[in-house]
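Lecture 7 notes: from sequence to structure.
We start with the chain below.
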Amino acid sequence: MQRGQKRNLKSDKAYFITMTVVGWIDVFTRKNHRDEIINALKYCQKEKGLIIYAYVIMSNHIHMVVDSQGLFSLKDIIRDFKKFTSKSILRQIQSEPESRREWFIQLFKDAADESKKHKNYKFWRPGNYAIEVYTEKFVWIKINYIHNNPVKAGLVKSPLDWVYSSASNYQDEESILEVFKLPQRLRTF
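Predicted structure tokens for the same chain:
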């Protein structure tokens, strides 16, 4: 398989990764669910060695450029992240105010029914869309794509206006999640 193509995660490479909620369900329209993702990412950074170069949390998916410091493999970190967040966000949906609770729960149950691996609920789509980062130009294309995703979706006018993104990190502004900022060459946003 050529570089830049979808592939399984290797432990010694950086990747552009997309993780998607089953059925493209708009779970992350709620602040509490987005904050749960941020908290889980912070934990993975601190305890598992996740290196985040860029990220954005959209309504039903997450894009990131990530790597691992080698404490755990990137594959294992992402697996654990998805396992934890699926349980914690489902717990939030069931216990906190949520007008779409019954609808969400039914959709996650239906997704589990179609899966041999899941018993009760399935939150994340299987696998990850993962492309190995292989050149500086490629990584900046992906970082710019990540930062402009909320603009293209019509959520904000400027990448800096979307709080749940690393765009502010690259402009040395306040951010809710620290990232490993790459040098500013080739930046276009």
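Points to note: The domain at 15-171 is CATH 3.30.70.1290 (Alpha-Beta Plaits). The beta strands are 15-20, 50-57, 61-68, 129-132.
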